[in-house]
Specification:
The protein is of the alpha/beta class. It has a domain of about 140 residues: 3-Layer(aba) Sandwich (Rossmann fold), CATH 3.40.50.10610. The protein contains nine helices and six strands, in the order ααββααβαααβββαα. β5 and β6 form a beta hairpin.
Amino acid sequence: MIRRLILACALMAGPSACATVAPQPKNYEAFATAEPHSILVVPAINRSTDALAADYLLTTIARPLANRGYYVFPLNLVKRVLEDDGLSDANMVHAADPPHLGQLFGADAILYVTIEKWTAEYIVIDTAVTVDISYVLKETSGGQVIWQHRQVAQYKANNAPPTGLVELVAQVIVAAIVKAAPDYVGTARKANAAAFGTPQQGLPPGPHYRGPHDIMVQ
């Protein structure tokens, strides 16, 4: 089977036919025109089956955005103001008029986040924790999309096959522990760091950016 796959790759056009294709650099013209200094992060839409996923995710958003050099409005204050304005549901917030939301807070841009997947799946003797997030950033003067991205991050309990019975038993136990208490927050932090910090894909450095060390997420 392996020899057939190698032969198939060799027969395809070009030596890079079986290589992973790198994503095209994003177009930042609209972003540069908007030149946002502050970002309003609104409640996330949760398409997963975990009712707490949106709350957990929002705890991981502010720091990497601030590390990229943007002012981020306090999330608890944002939630309270939106509720006072009659926008207590994430779907209602995402459907609201961006200029109106911008005027409420004096924000330059709004980050809309959607959780596509938030799961811990047991596979044989391993557990895979997967976080799949969509990001859309809109400027508040007219609601134009100035950046969007989708990022998947995954954490596996065991990264190598067992070499003996003792190690096999240990990996089964580790996988069960991870399945019972998956590290969603840590995995979401990895997704955010990659989404915001990857060159030519993430957010350009903002006005308060101080250097490469800022993109580190603790």
